[in-house]
Design brief:
The chain is α/β, with parallel strands linked by helices and 466 residues long. A 9-stranded mixed beta sheet has the order 1-2-3-13-4-14-20-16-18, sandwiched between helices. It has a 6-stranded antiparallel beta sheet with strand order 8-7-10-5-6-9, with helices on one face. A hairpin with a 5-residue loop joins strand 11 and strand 12. The two termini are 40 Å apart. The model has no long low-confidence stretch (mean pLDDT 94).
C-alpha cells in the first residue's frame, strides 16, 4: 500500500516531541518554568484564586462590580468568596449569540483540619484531620506536609497561614507503622491499611514547664500559636486550614521533559486556561474562563459549579452590555460552547491492565478529548454530540494542535466526572479537553511539558474562533 495513503487512513498518534523544532521546544520549556513557579505559590484554591486575580489585574482586568457598562474588548472578573473566580473578555458579537467557555477547577485532594483539631496523646501533639476528595490514604503518610489557609476570629480579623513552604519553616508529617511491627497491617487490603481517623498530623513534642498541667505539649503548641498569630484554641472553629504536600514543583526525568507537582489535577488546566485568556483581545464571541471550587467533592456549595453564582456573573455581563430582556440567560447558554478543561488519566505502562490502549491518553501525544465520562453505562456522563466533536476537531486540526481521544479506563473498571455535565444541563455544548496525568490524586502527580503547552494553545485557539 502507498505510504501516504496508509498514513491518511490510519489514526496513528506519535510523540509530540518528534514533530517540533528547536524554537517550539524552547517555548514549551519557558512556558512550563512559569507554570511550576505559579504552582509553588498556588497550592490551595484560595491561593490560586488570589494569584489569578493579581495576574488578571496586571493584564487589564477589572472587578465586574466596579463597571457600569461593558463594551467589546473590556476585561472583567468576579471572585466568589475568595475560592473561585470567573473571568471574561467581552466579544464583538452580542452575548445572546453564545459564549466560548473554558472551565477548570482549582481545588485538589488534600487533608483538612477538623473544627477542633488539637489534641495530645503519648506526650505528642497532633492535629486531627478529615480528608477531602478521592485519595489513597496510605500515600499521605511519611511525607512532608505544610499547613495553608485562614483563621477568622469572632471579631472578623483574618489571619493567613502558610507554614512549611519556606526552607526556614518547620514541616509536619503523618507517621506510619514500622515494617517490623506491621504484620497485621500488611495483611489488610491496601485501602484499609491506613484508616481515615488515623491520618493525624504530628505537630509538636516539647512540653510546657508547668507541673500542674496534664497536656503540657498541647498547651505549649497553643502558647506558640498565640504568640505567633494571636489565636486561642476556640479560633480553630472558624478556620479553613488545609494540609498539602510541602514538595516543590520540579522538572522530572534526565531530559527534563515532565513536571512533577502536587495539585496538577486540575491546576494544570486552570493555569493554561488563565494564561491563554490573558492574551485574548476583542474576540468575536465573549471569552469566559471558569476557575471553580469543590469539583473534587461533587461541585456542591456556593463556590462550586452547582451553585447559581456563575449564572449571576453572566447576568451581570448581560445587564452591563445592555442585553437584559427576560429569559435571555437561557438563550445565551443554549448557544454557547465549552471546553471542560479537566485532566485525564494518562496511560501508565506499569498498570496497563486497567486501560483500553486504543482509547487512552498518552503522555506527550497532546491534549485528550473525553467525549463522555461517567461510570459503568455512562452513568452521570456528559456526552458531547458528534457535531460538536467535529467542530472541536476542526479547531484543533486547523491550528495544528496535537490531540488524542480517550476514556477514563476500561468499561466497568472505574469512571469519573467533571464540571462538564453541569454546564451541559444548562444547554451548553461541552466536551472534556485536558492534560493526561500519571498518579492522579496522589501527593505528587506527573504531566508532560509538551501536553501542557498544547493545552494552552488549544484554549487560546478556542477563544479566538468565531
Amino acid at each position: 500500500m502507498d505510504e501516504n495513503l496508509k498514513k491518511k487512513l490510519i489514526n496513528e498518534k506519535k510523540s509530540g516531541w518528534l514533530e517540533i523544532n528547536e524554537e517550539k521546544f524552547n517555548q514549551i520549556f519557558h512556558f512550563c518554568d512559569g507554570y511550576m513557579e505559579f504552582l509553588n505559590h498556588s497550592k490551595t484554591e484560595r491561593e490560586f484564586a488570589a494569584n489569578a486575580r493579581n495576574l488578571a489585574e496586571k493584564n487589564g482586568f477589572q472587578d465586574v462590580n466596579q463597571m457600569q457598562n461593558l463594551k467589546p474588548g473590556d476585561k472583567v472578573y468576579f471572585v466568589n468568596r475568595e475560592k473561585s473566580i470567573y473571568l471574561a473578555v467581552i466579544g464583538e458579537q452580542k452575548l445572546e449569540n453564545g459564549l466560548h467557555i473554558v472551565g477548570a477547577h482549582i481545588d485538589s485532594p488534600r487533608l483538612d483540619l477538623k473544627p477542633n483539631p488539637l489534641y495530645e496523646e503519648g506526650e505528642l501533639a497532633y492535629f486531627n484531620t478529615h480528608y477531602y476528595g478521592g485519595i489513597k490514604k496510605y500515600q499521605w503518610t511519611t511525607i512532608p506536609l505544610s499547613i495553608h489557609g485562614v483563621i477568622i476570629k469572632a471579631n472578623g480579623e483574618k489571619i493567613t497561614v502558610n507554614i512549611g513552604e519556606d526552607e526556614q519553616d518547620p514541616i509536619f508529617t503523618i507517621t506510619d507503622l514500622l515494617p517490623h511491627l506491621a504484620k497485621e497491617q500488611e495483611a489488610k487490603k491496601l485501602r484499609d491499611a491506613i484508616e481515615g481517623e488515623n491520618l493525624d498530623l504530628l505537630v509538636g513534642s516539647i512540653p510546657i514547664i508547668d507541673e500542674k498541667e496534664k497536656n503540657k505539649v498541647k498547651l505549649n503548641i497553643l502558647k506558640i500559636l498565640n504568640e505567633k498569630y494571636g489565636i486561642t484554641e476556640e479560633d480553630f472553629v472558624s478556620s479553613e486550614l488545609e494540609l498539602v504536600p510541602a514538595f516543590k514543583a520540579r522538572s522530572l526525568g534526565f531530559d527534563y521533559g515532565m513536571v512533577a507537582a502536587y495539585g496538577q489535577d486540575d491546576k494544570v488546566c486552570s493555569y493554561t486556561a488563565l494564561k491563554a485568556l490573558m492574551e485574548i483581545e476583542k474576540p468575536q464571541k465573549t471569552a469566559i474562563c471558569i476557575l471553580s471550587d469543590k469539583e473534587e467533592i461533587g461541585s456542591m456549595g456556593n463556590t462550586g459549579m452547582e451553585s447559581h453564582v456563575f449564572d449571576y456573573f453572566i447576568s451581570e455581563l448581560l445587564n452591563k452590555t445592555g442585553e437584559n430582556r427576560p429569559n435571555l440567560l437561557e438563550k445565551v447558554f443554549c448557544y454557547s460552547k465549552m471546553l471542560s478543561s479537566d485532566v485525564d488519566a494518562g496511560f501508565d505502562p506499569l498498570y496497563s491492565s486497567v486501560s483500553d490502549r486504543q482509547n487512552s491518553g498518552y503522555l506527550s501525544k497532546g491534549i485528550t478529548l473525553n467525549k463522555y465520562t461517567g461510570a459503568r453505562g455512562k452513568s452521570g456522563a456528559s456526552d458531547a454530540n458528534a457535531e460538536f466533536v467535529a467542530w472541536v476537531r476542526n479547531l484543533l486540526e486547523t491550528n495544528q494542535i496535537k490531540y488524542q481521544v480517550s476514556e477514563l479506563g476500561k468499561v466497568d473498571v472505574g469512571g469519573g466526572g467533571t464540571i462538564a455535565y453541569i454546564l451541559a444541563n444548562k444547554g451548553v455544548d461541552v466536551i472534556d479537553c485536558g492534560v493526561p496525568v500519571l498518579s492522579m490524586h496522589a501527593p505528587y502527580e506527573v504531566t508532560s511539558k509538551f501536553d501542557i503547552y498544547e493545552a494552552y494553545r488549544a484554549y487560546k485557539a478556542f477563544w479566538v474562533k468565531d
